[in-house]
Amino acid sequence: MANDYYNSSDLKKFGEITEWSEELGKKFFDYYGKVFEEGALSAREKSLIALAVSHVVHCPYCIDAYTKDGLQRGITKEEMMEAVHVGAAIQSGATLVHGVQMMNKHKKLSM
Amino acid sequence: MAIKKSLSARKNELSNPENQLHFLSNGIFREGKLASFEQKVKADNDFPLRPKKLEILQINVGYMCNQVCAHCHVDAGPDRKEIMTRETMQQCLDIIKSTSTHTLDLTGGAPEMNPNFRWLVEEASKIGVKDFIVRSNLTIIRSNPKYYDLPEFFKKHNIHVVSSMPHYTKDMTDRQRGSGVFNLSIKALEELNAVGYGKEGSGLQLDLVYNPGGAFLPGNQESLEKDFKNALKKDFNIEFNHLFAITNLPISRFLEYLIVSENYEDYMTTLVEAFNPAAVANVMCTNTVSVGWDGYLYDCDFNQMLGLKVASKVQHIKDYNEKLLTNRNIITSQHCFGCTAGAGSSCQGSVA
After folding, report:
1. pLDDT per position as a tens digit, B78-106
2. Are B100 and B122 within 8 A, CB to CB?
3. Looking at beta carbons, which residues of chain B come within 8 Å of A44?
4. Which CATH number fits domain B14-41+51-340: 2.60.40, 3.20.20, 3.30.310, 1.20.1250?
């Protein structure tokens, strides 16, 4: 078994997933590229969304990639940290909103 | 990364260009992990690079500067004493009269600190070049009362002002260029605006230069320009014409930063992987000659700092011969990957 589950140099090999499934891999990368083009949202806004999501899905490759992408776009560290907090707020909110389910069940079962 | 002195004053081994070139030719390049610049260009049958029509004469009037920026490829600073003499300036003026170049580009250090700077500008502007650039670091304008009239002086001679501004926020600017630089730069930009620079219809051109504040490439020049324009207008009511996005080349103090921060291998890998053959066709060494403070000639300002004089019988401004100079091979090494990565990079920004 490998010593590390995550190896930063593996990010550069991402494109190799296409070698074992050419059609699906190609479709994915075409889609991925299209998603990040300028659109109704700017590429800058999309970069910040990607950074926030990278944290929520705990993807170290994505965090490296979109921190660098943000720097290249001139995005400030304050903007990046606010984006991370948006992700964290949604994630913690998603946990806490289940508290209502707990309360519902508690009330139903309690006298 | 606060730096107080030049590599030269610190007697750092990288202050010797030979050590830089040795470093750039060994390690990951010698081990074959990365292709050399020569190998990459050869693969597209573009090697050796050759000059096209000579369009820009870039004159470095000295390495003295009031700032000590962390990324400076010149290793400029207050402790650098290399200054172009009036005699060498006169030799440059004689050439400007006869050359076919349409752009004269004065750089440094802070060119304004050369005691003969104003004389050179006055004499050169009488000759009448199409585009007369002065690369001003902005803070020099507010550093001493003797420079306060520079905006008016530039206006009088219709100088095209090109100024460094790595970001529209204080934090990122001061990290690269030194504490307090952002506020002084804003003040200088306000004064340039006040005399008409950067204002629509004034005919007074004010461009900004963006260098990344770390081990990453510049983003899209057009998008950065849009963001800079919006932010500087909104926060300070400042206007400018264009933004030039320039990649940091791995030489001098930026090379030191890459090594110390352990970013060197990753940065070089990024540059090599972003190699763009379309940028090779338009690199600035193909239309520029760089003149050093002592009158020697180079393919570009970067080769000047690496001590790589032009590969020609003509090596000094006093012997300048455009035909002979155009018939030369351009000297390249691994630092050239900085000009060919992504959208390419030159003193006029992206090239591809």
Report:
1. 999 999 999 999 999 999 998 888 999 99
2. no
3. 223, 227
4. 3.20.20
